[in-house]
Amino acid sequence: MKRVVITGVGAMTPIGNNAFTAWENATGGVSGVSEATLIDIEKVDVKITAEVKDFNPADYMDKKEAKRMGRFSQFAVAASKMAIEDARIEIGKNAIPERVGVWIGSGIGGLGEFETQHRKFLEKGQRRVSPFTIPMFIPDMASGRVSIELGAKGINNCSVTACATGSNSIGDAFRSIQNGLSDVMITGGTEAAITEMTVAGFSNMTALSKNPNPEKASRPFDKNRDGFVLGEGCGVVILEELEHALTRGANIYAELVGYGSTGDAYHITSPAPDGEGAGRAMKLALEDASLAPEQVDYINAHGTSTQYNDLFETNAIKAVFGDHAYNLSVSSTKSMTGHLLGGAGAVEAIFSVLAIRDGIMPPTINYETPDEALDLDYVPNVAKKKDLTVVLSNSLGFGGHNASLLFKRFDG
């Protein structure tokens, strides 16, 4: 099996329009949650979201082509261009186009574009519907657009596993390199689904926080948590076969050493009791990497700020790590970014990799009232410095999808 390293990162998030600004704000405990501007808040009972701010697609792509893309695809193109530049990869020069693949998923795709065109159809008839409607909203188009923009001719795919999408995409791209099918993979997750319908659906499910204070609303692991904050954004990492990276003198952030993916086979929205499926995903990632639980230093948790997720993920960590659960640290960067749905796992993978690089664990902000049932170190409110060797990132999605990625410091 080929070894796989991370050589580039790119992101578009509510706390920064590139990976490094987002990371600086994550370690600084900066919240990206505010009153919603992308929706008519008079139509819904939840008024807060975590939006990408000051995004101009024309800064990253042709203006005409940008108008033919969904916002989620625009995010993916922007983040991918940043990641490929960070990796110093020039497709066709230091990477063979047919050996460079793209695997970028989206949990929902262009729901906003679909809603806009549907309104036009109802109000003005068929002729007013854009001929680009279908390519604007189908979830695979983010991956397709990135392939076209960058000239990547290898495997081109899209995972759709709800909130596990970003992590599953990275894990599946990892396998492509491990198995010798690709030299480089441009991979991650993207989402731009802040619409009235999305908010209404999640709100009626009682999944969203109704805390009137935007910056305090996302509070994973806190006793008074009352739901997640809907966000948007994208994360893209460049995965590269180790020898390919070394040959061209690439900067290596970390090594991706383990991937676990499981199904709960339990419920469409609720996680399996005590996070049984999530626990198996973590175990599989450890087994895949041939690492012992005691070797993990930090976990970037799924940590949505919902009652069941935070409890069951905590219980799963205790089941997998035993006494070591109390020696490692766990935090949720969703406390700052909100929940990016299909983009969450990829942004959190970037944070995990940069945590290893910098030796710092980002905090769980808004942690004010401990929950008696949640008794791990959640890195409350302030980042902690620690020499990190192994970091685990969890993503759990509706439909019972669970994905865990295991990153390790690259020591040659």
Automatic annotation (TrEMBL):
<dbReference type="GO" id="GO:0005829">
    <property type="term" value="C:cytosol"/>
</dbReference>
<dbReference type="InterPro" id="IPR014030">
    <property type="entry name" value="Ketoacyl_synth_N"/>
</dbReference>
<keyword id="KW-0808">Transferase</keyword>
<keyword id="KW-0444">Lipid biosynthesis</keyword>
<dbReference type="InterPro" id="IPR000794">
    <property type="entry name" value="Beta-ketoacyl_synthase"/>
</dbReference>
<comment type="pathway">
    <text>Lipid metabolism; fatty acid biosynthesis.</text>
</comment>
<dbReference type="GO" id="GO:0006633">
    <property type="term" value="P:fatty acid biosynthetic process"/>
</dbReference>
<protein>
    <recommendedName>
        <fullName>3-oxoacyl-[acyl-carrier-protein] synthase 2</fullName>
        <ecNumber>2.3.1.179</ecNumber>
    </recommendedName>
</protein>
<feature type="domain" description="Ketosynthase family 3 (KS3)">
    <location>
        <begin position="1"/>
        <end position="409"/>
    </location>
</feature>
<keyword id="KW-0012">Acyltransferase</keyword>
<dbReference type="GO" id="GO:0004315">
    <property type="term" value="F:3-oxoacyl-[acyl-carrier-protein] synthase activity"/>
</dbReference>
<dbReference type="InterPro" id="IPR020841">
    <property type="entry name" value="PKS_Beta-ketoAc_synthase_dom"/>
</dbReference>
<dbReference type="InterPro" id="IPR016039">
    <property type="entry name" value="Thiolase-like"/>
</dbReference>
<dbReference type="InterPro" id="IPR017568">
    <property type="entry name" value="3-oxoacyl-ACP_synth-2"/>
</dbReference>
<feature type="active site" description="For beta-ketoacyl synthase activity">
    <location>
        <position position="163"/>
    </location>
</feature>
<keyword id="KW-0443">Lipid metabolism</keyword>
<comment type="function">
    <text>Involved in the type II fatty acid elongation cycle. Catalyzes the elongation of a wide range of acyl-ACP by the addition of two carbons from malonyl-ACP to an acyl acceptor. Can efficiently catalyze the conversion of palmitoleoyl-ACP (cis-hexadec-9-enoyl-ACP) to cis-vaccenoyl-ACP (cis-octadec-11-enoyl-ACP), an essential step in the thermal regulation of fatty acid composition.</text>
</comment>
<comment type="similarity">
    <text>Belongs to the thiolase-like superfamily. Beta-ketoacyl-ACP synthases family.</text>
</comment>
<keyword id="KW-0276">Fatty acid metabolism</keyword>
<dbReference type="Pfam" id="PF00109">
    <property type="entry name" value="ketoacyl-synt"/>
</dbReference>
<dbReference type="InterPro" id="IPR014031">
    <property type="entry name" value="Ketoacyl_synth_C"/>
</dbReference>
<keyword id="KW-0275">Fatty acid biosynthesis</keyword>
<dbReference type="Pfam" id="PF02801">
    <property type="entry name" value="Ketoacyl-synt_C"/>
</dbReference>
